[in-house]
Write a structure and sequence with these properties.
Elements lengths: L1 E10 L2 E11 L4 E5 L6 H8 L7 E6 L2 E2 L13 E4 L11 H6 L14 H6 L1 H4 L11 H13 L5 E5 L7 H17 L3 E5 L3 H7 L2 E6 L2 E7 L5 H8 L2
Parallel strand pairs: 3-8, 3-9, 6-7, 7-8
Antiparallel strand pairs: 1-2, 1-4, 4-5, 9-10
The protein binds adenosine-5'-diphosphate (ADP) and magnesium ion.
Magnesium ion binds next to helix 1.
Length: about 230
């Protein structure tokens, strides 16, 4: 279980996450929803140690993780797919993937073969530059890169943003495989409701840095959608 307990975070004077508490059950897919600017990305960045907390605790399987640096968080089993993908455009696909290798245990520093089974397109493009891939392929590369460390928890920030519908369906299938077949815990930030409904077991809605609603996905009501999600 990944637990956020009364987390507060600031950008300068700006109080972004406010007494935010959230339980993310192991093996489930939890979707974080909410309008632009409510703090979804900040929340994931705080879990990854990119944003320091002013107060509160983040615990993974009972252990507090704040003492671990940004560089060390992936080794705790946290795989992160940032918003906008952020692959390295001038590096090859192979080089983008190899970045995670030093974080693997000694003697196991090769790309796990299941990654190429999940993303056969990447296998054919290992020598291509990341920046020459299509948006959908770059998103697949970003997910593959996060998987290189064999994460227990995969955090994805709007993986379908700006991606063509056929690739969106492919990415949905891959996230489902990781979550339901391989048992990986998934934390998904997503604004597209049908995508969220298809994948998630649980939802959490943020508004102005606070959790305003959470529960099993099927319990999300039309009133909540109207109040917190649609424009
Ligand atoms: N690096 C930053 N410095 C200052 N303010 C930021 C920074 N990143 C985000 N913000 C602000 O924090 C709030 C939450 O942003 P963000 O977490 O990106 O929201 P979301 O992902 O839900 O759209 C917004 O008001 C945004 O403008
Ligand atoms: Mg965001």
């Amino acid at each position: 279980m990944l637990v956020l307990d009364t987390v507060n975070q600031y950008y300068g004077q700006s109080h972004t996450l406010r007494d935010l508490s959230l339980d993310i059950p192991t093996g489930e897919c939890t979707v974080i929803m909410g309008r632009n600017g409510v703090g979804k990305t900040t929340l994931l960045q705080s879990i990854m140690g990119i944003n320091p907390l002013a107060s509160g605790r983040i615990m993974l399987d009972g252990q507090p993780i704040q003492g671990h640096s940004v560089e060390a968080r992936p080794t705790l089993g946290l795989g992160y797919v940032p918003q906008g993908r952020q692959i390295f455009p001038l590096l090859s696909v192979q080089e983008n993937l190899d970045i995670g290798l030093p974080m693997r245990p000694r003697g196991q520093r090769q790309i796990p073969s299941y990654i190429f089974e999940l993303f056969p397109v990447l296998k054919d493009m290992l020598a291509r530059r990341g920046g020459d891939l299509s948006g959908g392929q770059q998103q697949q590369l970003a997910i593959a890169r996060a998987l290189v460390i064999d994460p227990k928890v995969l955090l994805l920030d709007e993986p379908t943003e700006g991606i063509q519908p056929n690739v969106v369906a492919e990415i949905a299938g891959i996230i489902q495989k990781l979550n339901k077949d391989m048992g990986m815990t998934v934390v998904l930030v997503e604004q597209k409701l049908p995508f969220a409904r298809k994948l998630a077991d649980r939802f959490c809605i943020l508004d102005r840095g606070q959790t305003v609603a959470q529960g099993p996905m099927e319990a999300l009501t039309g009133d909540q959608v109207k109040a917190y999600l649609t424009v």
